């Protein structure tokens, strides 16, 4: 049985007969009882074939009834109609389908039932007739024989298939896509499914990619769904959005290879009003589940300014009521009415109550009107504000701004036409042109596309490689330099537009079903003529043609040939000779500028080339687009205090207009700045960011691809000032008191009052019954000025809602949002109600003042105090904390606990005897900062003693007013204070300052950004002010210095003082002992009116001048005086000093000493006696004396630049004495003496000893043959220098073993035969009469061991040197002797032990004999004797002495001559 099951069925675990239904199982079992075994296997095969979704065609119905085994049909997944035409794509269903649950189709199952019933009936109702039995038996045999024959053939076939399976080499093959995925175009929010069928063995592994990035279903659960079953693979994309528009790739891979195929998905959104304005809700405004949503956008973003390259975030708080926990609205952001999608340039975030848009890298393309749209099921709300993006700082000064909006048009397989918009900023010089750069996707290298700058904002980039993708950017250039590059364009692929369209797929409405149709091949038809050929664009660089496909073109695709000819000729030339184009649009390049051409197009396909289209009119190659004309009249209109609405007349006859740039200039500056950096197409624009109060003029420029127009005429000047408008709605409605039939409401002032004072408020109310609000009713007909109002005629225990409208001179504003629902029931609580009307003023970096009004509802007892609470604005409710521990009784409080830069909110609670009541509504968030230009109240007292408080404000508006208050209540009674205002300054003058004026005075300026200040006048401060006021009324001339005395040259005496302020009309009287002094020979008076210095000079002081001197001053009504008493010892000391200075002056009239004689010891220990003289001339003589004896010069006396020097080299005790120098000439003489005896000489020597000590080197250790020596060098040694050697901090007592001495400039300490006791710290101390100086060294440890070892070595070497064998002398170098004479030489020998002596001749040892006699006597004397000299004795002789300590030799030469040869 199992052998008949095909091998490919054995691999599926689900193959089981349990898949059959019970009814079919019963029929098959009956059939098996009367059928052979082959029928069962055949039915199983047929059942499996049906279960795999294969359509089979049967032939021979009668034979099928007998043998239900059908012939195998080739599997197909195409849906066919009755005429066998393909009508769609069938996706096989493998699970959960009723049709295939049994494994058989309905037709086959019915046929099997019929066959089984027939066989059963035949067996049950067999006739007893023999004829019938014979006939039935023969029929059975025939059927069985036929079935066995068929079964045998089937088994042979299946056996062959089975053996093929066992031979893997013949079965394995690379993946192959039987059916490839098809491209689709779907609507947004719809689903799409891509299918493919893959064959291959082993089973290929299939991976899906999106833009070459692997799709991971787990990364975005629910977005992607992958399915694979029976070699059919699918990718389902749920709720498609714009990001799903991409190229999808499916890759199949096994051990035999890999194969990929592609399909594109294009997601479109609904057209119509969507492209022109913001989209309306798709399903209209309906309620869901009976819920009506109220949406409010609060705390929105305002007009924002950024710079290229910066990051900007826009956000707004969104309040949706009712607040459902899991409900999320549809949050969308738009720029210039175009929906934004998340990208690397912009990111959206929704936190549940706040929508945020982050622009990660600003470019001028990001400038525009941004709109936040919040859509719920019932309504939508929008909020808009403009974002301005300024150019980044140019890399080169004077360079233009970067171009913007770089886009690619007419992209083909070898070219792309790049367009852009010109920048608004040209850097002060006209733009010479633009450079276009390109970069291939996947690289970072930018290459310049044009060699010379182009002025036209459109350029064809050629030389692209087909199939590759590129991005582009543009740079502007003027004579100053190159701009920054623009933002890169979107990626564009170099390919034929028809191929690109085919990859994206065709667009079709969503029907819920995807059906792919194929047409039957038809006989080839030569295409007809293209239609509607026209030149859509013509410049000097290229011409663009477009046309429509012909009607007659057959069923296959067509391509096109483009032809051209010069106008006036009939010579047509094919442009694209090699490869025809597929799309009905083509750009031609390399045309001669100025020539006229005609063009035509032919179609072609496999059947041939069709007839040409109608030729175009003659087109002249050149730029036909002109620069637009200047815009018309420019009209500015007031808008806000920082913006102006500018409108203008459009440029006339402007072609392909891109937009307009608006420029503004402060009147008189002649410098225009751009108001927008992105062109606007409208003829009206709001220019923001202007300075309040300044006057501006405006002008406009138009632009298209050809360039910018001339500037329009300047507008009339307009002063930036807010236009008057009705106020915005009040907010924060709360209940202050409630009784049976009335309620007291409070609210907060509108955030914008419309540029004019609010004249009043109107309150409306409506009753709410069972949650359904009724109609609004007016509560007051006449406007109320306070922000609190009692609404009467209400019904007890009813529910009400309220709204408030504010009014000014421009009208009544729109009503506020409905308040919460309040119940009108009488309050009976004992504690007071909430305070109201909280206001914040005088905001500084660390302080502010909070004002409030007491509660309307007092409770059971009167209010007796208030508590102020504070918390950070973004903190939780639990963060509220008290500011004051003790209740305050005033309706204001200065809070001093703020941190600069933090944002706070405040609330107030009232208390009475019963306790603390409910807190007030919190204030708006307040930022703790001192705003630039903030001023304070300044107290001033004028010359008449009038006290005033002054406040200045530079941010006034025409409607601003100064409001002065005392204890934060406006001053209306001028009995005690008079207010005077002039321009930007206001003054509060105290009429009669007294204790009643003590308090807190404040000044606030209306219609400003909270300009205010306060001044606390305490009792102490008032007392100080009154004293100053008295001084101003009865002035005293202030003195910088009191009367003083000083001595001048020649001993003159100067009395002087300096007045701080005195006019030129001031008078001075000089008084001595009550007697007025006058100008004369004795007294010289002087008054410097510029400096206020008053002086009186006397030549000298006499005895009668002892007494009191007084200067009396008067300047108008101001007076003052100062006195100086000179009596007793003070007078005598001043007189004595005056006389000395007089003598000194006379001394200095001749040669004199500026600096008296002194000495100087140089680092080289030379002594110089020196002095400095003045007022000398050539005849001036200088004489040196020592102990009364003149010192001769001998070159040591120098006399230059007024300095005299006498050098004493190598000073010693004999140089002690008294030195004197005398300067004299015909004008007089001067003498200076220096005593260098006893203490003076000792001080001199000690200073020299100090120099010697400082020049000493560090103590060093040296080993000798005797022992260890410590030594130090000095730069100079003097025999009078006293030093002390120390060992272990004790002075060393010198012995025969330890000695000290001096050798040159070396001071040493010798330790003979050192022992362990000699280890330790050694020091040499230099005595200089003061602290002295010590140099130390540590003779211990390794240092001692090394020194001792070196000493032993040197000692041994010395002993060896003293005792080694030596030849002391006595031998000549050369001996010349006559033949036959006797020679005797003697030398001294030393050494211990006695050396051995050897005599050599010509380096050979000589043995003593009769001819050579050698002796060595007493160990000291060696002799060498030749008894009879002959010529053979000539040669070199040596004596060699040696002992254990060494060897030494001495050489001599003997030359023998005969008497005859000499003659």
C-alpha Rg, in Å? 61 Å
Instruction: Describe the main β-sheet briefly.
Output: 6 strands, antiparallel
Strand content: 35-45%
What is the global morphology? Answer: extended
Helical run tally: 13
What percentage of residues falls in helices of 4 or more residues? Answer: 10-25%
End-to-end span in angstroms? 152 Å
Poorly predicted tracts of residues: 1-109, 118-130, 271-289, 505-521, 1194-1198
Q: What class would the helix/strand composition place it in?
A: mainly beta
Average pLDDT taken over every residue: 82
Number-wise, the strands total 102
Write the layout of secondary structure elements.
Blueprint: H1 7-10, H2 22-34, H3 37-51, H4 61-66, E1 78-80, E2 86-89, H5 106-124, H6 130-166, H7 168-171, E3 173-179, E4 184-187, E5 192-201, E6 205-210, E7 213-214, E8 224-229, E9 232-237, E10 246-254, E11 257-268, E12 294-298, E13 304-307, E14 312-321, E15 330-335, E16 338-339, E17 346-350, E18 354-359, E19 368-375, E20 380-390, E21 404-409, E22 415-421, E23 433-440, E24 447-448, E25 458-462, E26 469-478, E27 481-482, E28 492-493, H8 497-504, E29 531-538, E30 543-548, E31 559-566, E32 573-574, E33 585-588, E34 596-605, E35 608-609, E36 619-620, E37 634-640, E38 643-648, E39 659-666, E40 673-674, E41 684-687, E42 695-704, E43 707-708, E44 718-719, E45 731-738, E46 743-748, E47 760-769, E48 772-773, E49 777-778, E50 788-791, E51 799-808, E52 811-812, E53 822-823, E54 836-841, E55 848-853, E56 865-872, E57 881-882, E58 892-895, E59 903-912, E60 915-916, E61 926-927, E62 938-941, E63 947-952, E64 962-966, E65 969-970, E66 977-982, E67 985-990, E68 999-1005, E69 1012-1017, H9 1019-1033, E70 1039-1047, E71 1053-1059, ...
Parallel strand pairs: 4-11, 13-20, 95-102
Antiparallel strand pairs: 1-2, 3-5, 5-9, 6-7, 6-10, 8-9, 10-11, 12-14, 14-18, 15-16, 15-19, 17-18, 19-20, 21-22, 22-25, 23-24, 23-26, 26-27, 26-28, 29-30, 30-33, 31-32, 31-34, 34-35, 34-36, 37-38, 38-41, 39-40, 39-42, 42-43, 42-44, 45-46, 46-50, 47-48, 47-49, 47-51, 51-52, 51-53, 54-55, 55-58, ...
Helix pairs in contact: 2-5
């Amino acid at each position: 049985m199992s052998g008949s099951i095909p091998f490919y069925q054995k691999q599926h675990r689900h193959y089981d007969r349990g898949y059959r239904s019970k009814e079919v199982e019963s029929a098959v079992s009956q059939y098996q009882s009367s059928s052979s075994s082959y029928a069962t296997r055949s039915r199983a095969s047929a059942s499996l074939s049906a279960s795999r979704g294969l359509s089979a065609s049967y032939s021979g119905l009668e034979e099928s009834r007998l043998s239900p085994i059908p012939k195998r049909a080739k599997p197909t997944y195409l849906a066919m109609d009755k005429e066998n035409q393909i009508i769609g794509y069938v996706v096989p269903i493998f699970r959960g389908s009723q049709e295939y649950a049994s494994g058989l189709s309905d037709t086959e199952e019915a046929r099997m039932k019929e066959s089984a019933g027939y066989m059963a009936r035949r067996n049950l109702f067999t006739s007893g007739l023999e004829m019938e039995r014979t006939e039935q038996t023969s029929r059975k045999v025939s059927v069985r024989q036929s079935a066995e024959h068929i079964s045998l053939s089937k088994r042979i076939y299946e056996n062959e298939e089975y053996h093929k399976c066992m031979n893997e080499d013949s079965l394995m093959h690379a993946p192959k896509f039987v059916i490839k995925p098809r491209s689709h175009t779907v609507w947004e929010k719809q689903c799409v499914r891509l299918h493919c069928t893959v064959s291959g063995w082993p089973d290929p592994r299939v991976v899906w990619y999106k833009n070459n990035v692997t799709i991971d279903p787990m990364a975005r659960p629910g977005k992607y769904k992958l399915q694979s079953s029976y070699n059919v693979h699918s990718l389902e994309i749920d709720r498609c959005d714009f990001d799903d528009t991409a190229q999808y790739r499916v890759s199949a891979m096994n051990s035999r290879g890999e194969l990929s195929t592609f399909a594109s998905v294009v997601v479109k959104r609904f057209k119509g009003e969507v492209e022109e304005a913001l989209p309306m809700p798709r399903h209209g405004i309906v309620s869901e589940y009976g819920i009506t949503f109220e949406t409010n956008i609060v705390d929105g973003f305002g007009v924002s300014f950024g710079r290229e390259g910066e990051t900007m975030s826009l956000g707004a708080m969104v309040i949706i009521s009712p607040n459902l926990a899991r409900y999320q609205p549809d949050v969308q952001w738009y720029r210039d009415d175009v929906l934004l999608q998340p990208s690397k340039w912009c990111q959206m975030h929704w936190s549940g109550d706040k929508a945020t848009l982050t622009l990660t890298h600003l470019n001028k393309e990001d400038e525009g009107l941004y709109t936040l749209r919040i859509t719920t099921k019932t309504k939508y709300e929008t909020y808009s504000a403009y974002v301005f993006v300024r150019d980044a700082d140019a890399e080169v000064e004077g360079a233009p701004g970067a171009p913007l909006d770089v886009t690619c048009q007419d992209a083909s397989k070898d070219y792309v036409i790049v367009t852009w918009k010109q920048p608004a900023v040209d850097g002060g010089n006209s733009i010479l042109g633009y450079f276009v750069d390109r970069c291939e996707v996947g690289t970072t290298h930018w290459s310049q596309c044009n060699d010379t700058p182009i002025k036209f904002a459109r350029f064809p980039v050629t030389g692209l490689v087909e199939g590759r993708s590129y991005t582009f950017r543009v740079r502007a250039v003027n004579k100053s330099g190159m701009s920054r590059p623009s933002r890169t364009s979107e990626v564009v692929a170099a390919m034929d537009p028809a191929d690109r369209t085919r990859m994206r797929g065709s667009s079709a409405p969503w029907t819920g079903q995807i059906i792919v149709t194929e047409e039957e091949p038809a006989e080839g038809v030569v295409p007809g003529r293209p239609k509607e050929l026209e030149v859509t664009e013509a410049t000097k660089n290229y011409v663009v043609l477009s046309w429509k496909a012909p009607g007659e073109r057959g069923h296959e695709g067509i391509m096109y040939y483009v032809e051209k000819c010069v106008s006036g000729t009939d010579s047509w030339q094919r442009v694209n000779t090699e490869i025809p184009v597929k799309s009905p649009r083509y750009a031609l390049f390399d045309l001669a500028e100025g020539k006229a051409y005609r063009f035509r197009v032919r179609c072609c396909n496999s059947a041939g080339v069709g007839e040409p289209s109608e030729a175009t009119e003659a087109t002249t190659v050149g730029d036909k687009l002109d620069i637009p004309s200047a815009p018309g009249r420019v009209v500015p209109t007031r808008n806000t205090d920082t913006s102006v609405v500018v409108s203008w007349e459009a440029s006339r006859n402007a072609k392909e207009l891109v937009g307009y740039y608006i420029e503004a200039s402060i009147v008189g500056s002649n410098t225009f700045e751009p108001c927008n950096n992105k062109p606007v197409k409208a003829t009206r624009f709001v220019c923001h960011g202007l300075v309040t109060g300044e006057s501006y003029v405006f002008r406009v420029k138009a632009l298209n691809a050809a360039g910018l127009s001339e500037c329009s005429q300047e507008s009339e000047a307009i002063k930036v000032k807010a236009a008057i408008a009705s106020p915005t709605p009040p907010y924060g409605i709360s209940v202050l008191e409630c009784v049976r039939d009335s309620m007291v409401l409070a609210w907060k002032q509108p955030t914008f009052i419309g540029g004019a004072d609010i004249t009043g408020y109107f309150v409306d109310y409506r009753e709410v019954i069972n949650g359904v609000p009724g109609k609004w009713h007016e509560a007051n007909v006449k406007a109320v000025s306070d922000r609190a109002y009692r609404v009467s005629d209400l019904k007890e225990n009813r529910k009400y809602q309220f709204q408030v409208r504010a009014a000014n001179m421009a009208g009544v504003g729109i009503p506020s949002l409905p308040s919460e629902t309040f119940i009108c029931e009488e309050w009976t609580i004992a504690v007071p109600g909430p305070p109201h009307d909280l206001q914040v003023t005088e905001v500084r970096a660390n302080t502010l003042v909070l004002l409030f009004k007491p509660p309307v509802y007092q409770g059971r007892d009167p209010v007796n105090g208030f508590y102020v609470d504070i918390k950070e604005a973004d903190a939780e409710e639990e963060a509220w904390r008290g500011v004051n521990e003790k209740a305050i009784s005033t309706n204001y409080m200065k809070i001093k606990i703020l941190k600069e830069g933090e944002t706070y909110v405040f609330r107030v609670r009232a208390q009475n005897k019963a306790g603390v009541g409910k807190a007030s509504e919190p204030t708006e968030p307040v930022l703790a900062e001192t705003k630039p230009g903030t001023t304070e109240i300044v107290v001033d007292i004028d010359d008449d003693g009038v006290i005033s408080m002054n406040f200045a404000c530079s941010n006034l508006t025409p409607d601003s007013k100064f409001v002065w208050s005392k204890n934060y209540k406006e001053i209306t009674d001028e009995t005690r204070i008079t207010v005077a205002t002039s321009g930007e300054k206001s003054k509060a003058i105290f009429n009669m300052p007294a204790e009643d004026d003590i308090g807190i005075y404040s000044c606030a300026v209306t219609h400003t950004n909270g300009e205010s200040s306060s001044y606390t006048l305490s009792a102490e401060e008032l007392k100080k002010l009154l004293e100053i006021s008295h001084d101003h009324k009865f002035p005293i001339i202030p003195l910088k210095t009191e009367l003083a005395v000083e001595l001048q040259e020649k001993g003159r005496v100067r009395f002087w003082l300096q007045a701080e302020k005195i006019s030129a009309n001031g008078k001075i009287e000089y008084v001595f002992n009550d007697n007025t002094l006058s100008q004369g020979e004795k007294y010289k008076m002087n008054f410097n009116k510029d400096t206020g210095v008053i002086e009186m000079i006397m030549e000298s002081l006499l005895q009668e001048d002892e007494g009191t001197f007084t200067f009396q001053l008067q300047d108008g009504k101001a007076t003052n005086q100062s006195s100086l008493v000179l009596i007793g010892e003070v007078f005598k000391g001043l007189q004595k000093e005056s006389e000395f200075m007089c003598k000194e002056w006379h001394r200095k009239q001749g040669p004199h000493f500026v600096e008296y004689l002194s000495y100087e010891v140089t680092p080289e220990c030379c002594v110089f006696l020196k002095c400095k003289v003045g007022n000398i001339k050539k005849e001036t003589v200088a004489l040196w004396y020592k102990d009364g004896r003149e010192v001769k010069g001998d070159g040591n006396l120098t006399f230059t630049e007024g300095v005299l020097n006498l050098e004493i080299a190598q000073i010693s005790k004999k140089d002690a004495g008294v030195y004197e120098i005398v300067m004299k000439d015909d004008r007089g003489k001067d003498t200076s003496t220096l005593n260098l005896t006893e203490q003076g000489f000792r001080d001199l020597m000690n200073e020299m000893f100090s120099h010697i000590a400082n020049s000493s080197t560090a103590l060093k250790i040296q080993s000798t043959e005797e022992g260890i020596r410590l030594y130090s060098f000095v730069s100079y040694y003097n025999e009078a220098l006293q030093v002390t050697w120390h060992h272990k901090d004790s002075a060393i007592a010198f012995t025969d073993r330890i000695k000290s001495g001096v050798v040159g400039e070396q001071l040493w300490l010798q330790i003979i035969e050192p022992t362990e006791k000699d280890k330790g710290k050694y020091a040499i101390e230099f005595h200089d009469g003061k602290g002295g100086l010590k140099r130390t060294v540590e003779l211990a440890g390794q240092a001692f061991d090394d020194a001792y070892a070196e000493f032993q070595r040197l000692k041994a070497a010395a002993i060896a040197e003293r005792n080694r064998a030596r030849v002391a002398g006595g031998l000549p170098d050369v001996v010349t002797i006559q033949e036959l004479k006797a020679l005797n030489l003697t030398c001294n020998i030393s050494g211990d032990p006695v050396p051995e002596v050897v005599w050599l001749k010509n380096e050979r040892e000589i043995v003593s004999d009769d001819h050579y006699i050698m002796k060595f006597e007493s160990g000291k004397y060696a002799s060498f004797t030749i008894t009879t000299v002959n010529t053979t004795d000539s040669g070199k002789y040596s004596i060699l002495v040696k002992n254990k300590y060494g060897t030494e030799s001495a050489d001599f030469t003997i030359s023998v001559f005969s008497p005859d040869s000499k003659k």
